[in-house]
Amino acid sequence: MTKNIPFNKTYFMLIFYLLLCGILFQIAKGYHLFNFKEGQHLRRTYKKQEAVYCTHNIHVSYLKIAIEGKNGMMKISFFKDDLTLALQSFSHEFSSLEPSTKLDSIFRLYLRNKLELAVSGKSVKLGIISSGEEGDMWWYQLEFNSNSEIKEFDILNSCLMELYDDQKNIIQVMHFPKEKTYSYYCIAGSNRYRVKLE
Predict the structure, then answer these.
(1) Is 147 helix (H, G, I), strand (E, B) or coil?
(2) How far is Cα 144 from Cα 101, in angstroms, rounded to an integer?
(3) What span, in angstroms and rounded, lies between the C-alpha atoms of 96 and 80?
(4) Looking at CB atoms within 10 Å, which of 30, 91, 164, 193 has the fewest?
(5) Average of pLDDT values for 132-161?
(6) Cα gap 91→109, rounded to integer Å
(7) Is the pTM above the cut of 0.85?
(8) Containing H/E element for 169?
(9) Would residue 39 be called left, alpha or beta, if left means φ above 0 and alpha means ψ between -120 and 50 degrees?
(10) Cis (ω within 30 of 0) for the bond into 6?
């Protein structure tokens, strides 16, 4: 959990940044949720044996990362129908996107195969803090830490790329206390980056 991160002003800023990113994302994503142009994507997924129709023009996920010292937090968001299809393909034990230890376990295994984070060449373990839904999105909040100050790290994000050739994964990093931001854009064949923090 969060025992390794002291609750101080900096930790409060990390939480505030992640919440702010979520609010800004809700505002920004509206441009394609209600844009019914030619070529719009209509798919059908299933939840509780009922057909659920979701529409969106692009295949995209959003990853927000906040880092200070040895500690980091992240929030990753997916369209619910995309994540449902991915987890259905990944595990026959998956049933629906409802908060549970079973869902967390399946998602943790999926993420381990699709999202790699390494500090000084050593893989970093991601711990799930919470999850939930916002409109037609499903998100997870996670935490990680290193034995030493995180000055640079390697990241690979191939989430959902097994489903869609045009999948795009956007990564935004904020480094505290300077609050310097970095942005990365992952597509098939170009989804690994080395992030050097200043």
Answers:
(1) coil
(2) 19
(3) 10
(4) 30
(5) 95
(6) 9
(7) no
(8) strand 168-175
(9) left
(10) no
Inter-residue contact 106 to 87 (CB < 8 Å)? yes
- 160 vs 133: CA distance, rounded Å: 18
Element (H, E) at 16: helix 9-28
DSSP 107-121: HHHHHHHHEEEEETT
Q: Are strands 127-134 and 152-157 parallel, antiparallel or unpaired?
A: unpaired
* Cα dihedral 2, 193, 164, 79 in deg (nearest 10): 30
| Contact present, 139 and 69 (Cβ < 8 Å) | no
Give the tokens for residue 57: 């023009």
Question: What does 42-89 look like in DSSP terms, one character per residue?
Answer: EEEEEETTEEEEEE-SS-EEEEEEEEETTEEEEEEEEEHHHHHHHHHH
Which DSSP symbol is given to 190?
Answer: B
State the distance between the two ends of the chain, measured CA to CA, in whole angstroms.
27
Chain-centre distance for alpha carbon 192 = 15
Tokens of 3: 């025992």
Mean pLDDT, rounded, for 11-21: 60
* Residue pLDDT, tens place only, 65-99: 999 999 999 999 999 999 999 999 999 999 999 89
pLDDT band at 198 (very low <50, low <70, confident <90, very high): confident
169 neighbors 128 (Cβ within 8 angstroms) = no
pLDDT tens figures, 18-48: 655 555 455 444 433 333 333 333 333 333 3
